[in-house]
Amino acid sequence: MTTTASAPGRPTSAKPGRPLRIRRRMTPRRAGSIALKTLVIGFLLAITVLPLIWLLLGSLKTQTEWLNNPSWALPENFLNFENYQVAWVDGDIGRYILNSALATFPSLALIVVLGVAAGFALEVLVWKGRGGVLLLFLAGIMVPGQMILLPLFSAYFQTHLTGTIWPLILTYTATGLPLTVFMMATYFRAVPREIFEAAAIDGASIYRSFLSIAFPMVRNAVFTVALVQFFFIWNDLLIALTFTSVGDFLTIQVGLLNFTGQFGQVQYGPTFAAICINVVGILVLYLFLNQRVMRGLTAGSVKG
């Protein structure tokens, strides 16, 4: 028979088989702490959600409403989706999204494959000079992207790559590799070396150890790095504007600039609709994959 002790003056209402839950008294200090946390969370939620709501409502307004009514005024017709039709058909947003995908996914594949392999070689394999090579990759993080645009543009022009999608793919890959290699080397550092030594004793080659042991153990980290690089590449404007300002390979970020009409006139409704199409797609992707991102960020230890 099990007895449960209760505090003096408090009734015992625990059922058999359940632990007794003692409620903490709501002191003024604890109430103030809860109120402060609620205010901070509410403030962060407001500055995150309100711009999205304003963007969505703005995409439903006509040009006359934008010019004559205050910017915070509600749209007169909440079922006015003509701006989305104009953005998709006349604004050619679909083609811009396709161009962004053609530039993003090949670059992302090269970054992941080369970055993970380089991180494995720099952290797991033992060879002379690997510390200096890692420092060279770290130096690549310190170089501002604005400094390399003019030399790269000249090199692409001389090699006749301008007017194609290759300048974007090569530039995104080169700028994304330093951070990827550094992060993957950090993740591989947490993997016990005894695992690879045991694999070598069993006769596994370097490639087998990488594909069958190393890569599966850091797959959450690889997924996180890939998602971070995806957001960087997809949302880039400077590099895309430098190499695809004209032609058939405009990305969606550069394509949004085409909604500026003659004498700088902006078509606000279609512009907001195009931005909504871009933002909502990326937001849904992140909300669907955020748990994988969190697991990847904490993938710094191995259970064994």
Amount of beta strand: under 5%
The secondary-structure class comes to: mainly alpha
Count every helix, treating DSSP H or I runs of 4 or more residues as helices.
Answer: 13
> Class of the largest domain in CATH?
Mainly Alpha
Name of the CATH homologous superfamily of the largest domain = MetI-like
Radius of gyration computed on alpha carbons: 27 Å
- Give the termini separation: 39 Å
CATH architecture of the largest domain, by name, is Orthogonal Bundle
Which term fits the overall shape? flat
Helix-residue proportion = 55-70%
Say what the CATH topology of the largest domain is: MetI-like fold
Question: Which SSEs are present, and which pair or pack?
Answer:
Elements: H1 28-58, H2 63-68, H3 82-90, H4 93-123, H5 130-142, H6 145-158, H7 166-189, H8 193-201, H9 206-217, H10 219-234, H11 238-243, H12 252-255, H13 268-297
Helix pairs in contact: 1-13, 3-13, 4-7, 4-10, 5-7, 7-10, 8-9, 10-13
